[in-house]
């Protein structure tokens, strides 16, 4: 019946299946493509254009200054500290997050009763509102707050966590790790469960211990997941803003002023839109470089790819 | 490594997990209990794991100090619109990139993927200018349009594409023979099969929108328009000191409903996220 519906013609119709498909394809991707051009690529061009201008919103000035903002960037005395803070934050976050996620995933992969309850609880901070979670930790980390109270019970005098340079950074990292480690934990767990059981059988027959099995079988087989989660975690760590704003406002001094927070201050608190745009370009270059480097590394590290 | 464990090993593992759980569970507990403590007890020593006195007026005060119901609605409807919008945009784009042959599809996909490299923090200054020009500052439009069409939706499109690529083609072929057009194939056949991927997209899109903080404080200026994360930071007294118990009551009301939904649907949640095709 259906064949008869397409009445046979001598001339080939313009709307062949291929053409109709192509039109459908373009229609399907149109919202996304137009959105990316409007809200990502066009603004990226604008941000570069702005970065070539001296632009103070309060003074209502907008003058082309060429590379002056970039020279300012190089001469900015605060910037080395900001980049150092960002680097410490991102490195600390990625290392802690990935290793804790892997440890939890291995634990949750054991044959134990009630393991889903643990899984649910470890994952639960992921679904707690980010600012709510950060406020509670801010409350806990006050000088006279819950953590120092508990420490005092066992006779330890805790520091003023958020007002001491060294502990402020640790606090910000740790708060963020506990918030989001559940996500990587679940992805690792899925990867662990995807490792064929026969491989372990074979390794056991060959006399490989647990640790050796983990190093020689598990890690190589889940390396694609490790790579992807590490890219996502690093790029995510560079976007951290709310945690800093709520916990430390970048302080004490500038020890927790990461790049996005500095960008926000320059653009929206001090109204230096031109310089803020230059910092945006710097952020973009860092994100792009890190992603590129990690992507290149996949050939070396990742043993197995789908 | 699912081998049977010795009883001693089991006890050790349970013990280890219970200790590790503390920083994951205690903050939520501390938030709940502190939100009903009178302000004089909030920094009591030794810390009260259970309130010695209850003060439920903190919850009423939340609504007196801020238009909190309105702010709750703002966050809820924005997150709902963003979630539905992203599901539509990303499933259509993901489907087309995965299953439809059209010229330049790979090149266009690469352009779209650029969105992953350009987080919205990078473009916040020009976005502010654009929305200023369009008269959309202090409206919710930036918080709705940018996530649905901009960088945040790219990850969703990627997840959908990975899912549709893995889908066997026979069903579509059969539908084609029956004379179904592309849109009907997508709507009637591919999309119903994509429920797990759509669920995952819905979950992380909702959480992303629900947690947005930089964008609201840049784009919104009046308390009536504020979203929850922004509102939570507003509970300070005349001297700028935090009103902890009231703030924690507001935080509790923000966190608990989502947490409850998660606990009820945790299986779908976790498995949905695990199956997002994040495997390269």
Written account of the structure:
- The complex is a heterodimer of chains A (306) and B (280).
- Chain A has 306 residues and is mainly α.
- Chain A folds into two domains: 20-46, no CATH class; 78-301, MetI-like fold.
- Helix content of chain A is 71%, strand content 3%.
- Chain A contains 13 helices and two strands.
- The longest helix of chain B is centred in the first third of the chain and has 32 residues, at 68-99.
- Chain B has helices at 7-34, 57-65, 68-99, 105-117, 124-133, 141-149, 151-165, 170-177, 182-193, 195-211, 214-219, 228-232, 244-264, 266-274.
- The model of chain B has no long low-confidence stretch (mean pLDDT 88).
- By secondary structure, chain B is mainly alpha-helical.
- Chain B has 14 helices and no strands.
- Chains A and B meet through helix 2, helix 4, helix 5, helix 6 and helix 7 of A and helix 1, helix 3, helix 4, helix 5 and helix 6 of B.
Put the structure in a nutshell.
The complex is a heterodimer of chains A (306) and B (280). With 306 residues, chain A is mainly α.
Global geometry of chain B = globular
Report the principal-axis shape of chain A. flat
| Share in helix of chain B | 55-70%
Strand residue content of chain B? under 5%
Largest sheet of chain A: 2 strands, antiparallel
Q: What profile does the largest beta sheet of chain B have?
A: none
- Beta-strand content estimate of chain A: under 5%
Distance between the termini of chain A: 42 Å
Rounded to the nearest angstrom, the radius of gyration of chain B is 24 Å
H and E string of chain B: HHHHHHHHHHHHHH
Contiguous helical run count of chain A:
13
| Uncertain stretches of 5 or more adjacent residues of chain B | none
CATH superfamily (homologous) name of the largest domain in chain B:
MetI-like
CATH class of the largest domain in chain A: Mainly Alpha
């Amino acid at each position: 019946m259906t064949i008869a519906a397409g009445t046979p013609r001598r001339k080939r119709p313009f709307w062949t299946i291929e053409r109709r498909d192509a039109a459908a394809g373009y229609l399907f991707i149109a919202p996304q493509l137009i959105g990316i051009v409007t809200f990502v690529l066009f603004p990226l061009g604008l941000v570069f254009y702005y970065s070539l201008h001296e632009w103070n919103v309060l003074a209502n000035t907008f003058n082309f200054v060429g590379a002056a903002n970039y020279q300012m960037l190089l001469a900015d005395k605060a910037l080395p500290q900001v980049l150092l803070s960002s680097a410490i934050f991102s490195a600390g976050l990625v290392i802690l997050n990935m290793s804790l996620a892997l440890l939890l995933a291995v634990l949750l992969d054991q044959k134990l009763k009630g393991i889903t309850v643990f899984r649910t609880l470890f994952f639960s901070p992921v679904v707690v509102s980010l600012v709510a979670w950060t406020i509670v930790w801010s409350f806990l980390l006050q000088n006279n707050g819950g953590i120092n109270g508990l420490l005092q019970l066992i006779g330890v005098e805790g520091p003023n966590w958020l007002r001491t340079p060294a502990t402020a950074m640790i606090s910000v990292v740790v708060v963020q790790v506990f918030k989001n480690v559940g996500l990587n934990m679940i992805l690792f767990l899925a990867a662990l469960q995807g490792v064929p059981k026969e491989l372990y059988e074979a390794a056991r027959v060959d006399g490989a211990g647990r640790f050796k099995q983990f190093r020689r079988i598990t890690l190589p087989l889940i390396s694609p997941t490790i790579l992807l989660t590490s890219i996502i975690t690093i790029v995510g760590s560079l976007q951290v803003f709310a945690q800093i704003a709520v916990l430390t406002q970048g302080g004490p001094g500038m020890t927790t002023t990461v790049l996005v927070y500095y960008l926000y201050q320059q653009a929206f608190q001090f109204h230096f839109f031109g310089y803020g745009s230059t910092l945006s370009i710097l952020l973009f270059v860092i994100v792009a470089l890190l992603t590129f480097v990690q992507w290149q590394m996949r050939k070396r590290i990742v043993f197995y790819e789908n | 490594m699912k081998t049977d464990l010795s009883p001693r090993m089991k006890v050790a593992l349970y013990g280890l997990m219970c200790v590790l759980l503390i920083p994951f569970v205690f903050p939520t507990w501390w938030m709940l209990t502190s939100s009903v403590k009178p302000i004089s007890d909030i920094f009591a020593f030794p810390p009260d794991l259970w309130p010695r006195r209850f003060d439920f007026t903190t919850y009423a005060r939340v609504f007196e100090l801020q238009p909190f119901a309105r702010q709750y609605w703002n966050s809820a409807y924005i997150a709902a619109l963003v979630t539905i919008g992203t599901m539509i945009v990303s499933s259509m784009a993901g489907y087309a990139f995965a299953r439809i042959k059209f010229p330049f599809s790979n090149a266009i996909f690469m352009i779209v993927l650029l969105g992953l490299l350009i987080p919205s923090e990078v473009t916040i200054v020009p976005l502010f200018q654009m929305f200023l020009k369009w008269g959309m500052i202090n409206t919710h439009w930036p918080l709705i349009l940018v996530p649905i069409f901009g960088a945040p939706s790219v990850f969703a499109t990627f997840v959908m594409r990975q899912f549709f690529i893995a889908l066997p083609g026979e069903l579509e072929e059969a539908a084609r023979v029956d004379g179904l057009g592309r849109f009907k194939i997508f709507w009637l056949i591919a999309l119903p099969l994509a429920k797990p991927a759509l669920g995952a997209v819905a979950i992380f899109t909702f959480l992303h929108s629900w947690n947005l903080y930089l964008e609201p404080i840049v784009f919104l200026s009046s308390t009536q328009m504020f979203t929850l994360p922004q509102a939570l930071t507003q509970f300070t007294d005349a001297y700028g000191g935090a009103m902890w118990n009231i703030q924690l009551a507001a935080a509790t009301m923000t966190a608990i409903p989502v947490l409850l939904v998660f606990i009820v649907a945790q299986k779908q949640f976790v498995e949905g996220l695990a199956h997002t095709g994040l495997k390269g």
